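Q: Protein A?
A:
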Amino acid sequence: MNLYDEITCEGVFMFCNLQYGNKYILSPLAKESRKFSFGISGIISYQLMTREGYKAYGESIDNGYSLKIDFPDKFGILTFESQVPNLSDLKDFSIYNSDCLGKLKSVEIEFANGDNFSGTVTSAYASSGEGLKPLRGKYTYSTGEKVVGEYSKIRYADGVIYVPKGVITFNDGVVTSKDWLGKYNFTSKEWKHIYDSCNGLTEIRDMAIQLELKKQQEKIAEQRAEQRAEQLRRRKEEEQRRNIVSKYGEHYGALIIKKKLVPGMSQAMVNEIWSKDFFDYSISTSSGRRIEMWSLNKMKWALDENSGKEGVVALLSGSTSLSSVPSLLVFVNDKLTDIYK
């Protein structure tokens, strides 16, 4: 019997020509008979074709009717099962109509990829090729993880990985409802590598933990290397301080270390602060005195300022600038007498 244009039913049907109260009977007596009518005593099973041409069928159960839909292989769903209170709820049924899907009780879906879902569903856009989208319920992945709550796909977008919200049970039995990926500050390249390399939530979690541990270990190793380099620099600096003081005494040694020129220093002392290589120098004699002048050659400084030739003190006090270098130094009998900036 066709209950609606698209629904075909199998069940117990009856003919009657007489009604006593709520009972309909078929009477053989002409004087009692009325107009014959046709009715349904009970529907055992039914079949229907959805608007999209998918075959749906079911049978009578305690609280309504079961519903199963057969989808083509390309749809990505192996089985779809649910219940409806009344067959009238299936009139004009469409998997692309959220109102139709909202009339269904809890839906159970087995996907072709091995995933399973039990809960409510809504309609996805027909252009997506999906039609059905899990909404809220329990989603079990083929890899074993379970998610209870609002459904969303595992996806990579905007440089990060998005995972379902809700209570997640990983393969090792660990249960969490927190934003377990939000604590990681990975680059988009690192997130993409995790997404492409992992199959399932557990693998994503484990690889994120391993990558974070590796980054922490690398950071510790980098900090230790910096500490060793700093210790080496300090030892070398201290060694050079001792050498300066050993060569020139406490008074001049302290001035050299501070990069401070004062009259009375020897050329050797000045050379410790500003290398003679950056100067043009001339020598003359007057009244038995040997006069030597150092004139700064800016071209030499520009070519070699990063070579470390400015003197031992550069290593002690850091980088220097051209403005801090004297433009002219005058020595009389090897002793510094005049300093011109």
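Q: Protein B?
A:
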Amino acid sequence: MKGKSLKITNKLGLHARAAAKIVALSSKFKSKITIANGKKIADAKSIMKILMLAAPRNTEIKIKTIGKDEEKAMNALEELFLRKFDEE
């Protein structure tokens, strides 16, 4: 299992377009991927669950990956967050 805290730094936070990019990327991996905002936990392959995290800009979220390709999944998601979901 891999776990990492990441900060949401894009202007609009974890909105629909950003959530869709997380789902599209996460769906490429076999590993189970979860995103947590405090006590709220979402399956990273479900756009509705991600949106329910209600994570605005500067929120620190925790990502966990479990499975065969967990390291690749974590690295890809971290890169997506660092690129601010390709919005800026």
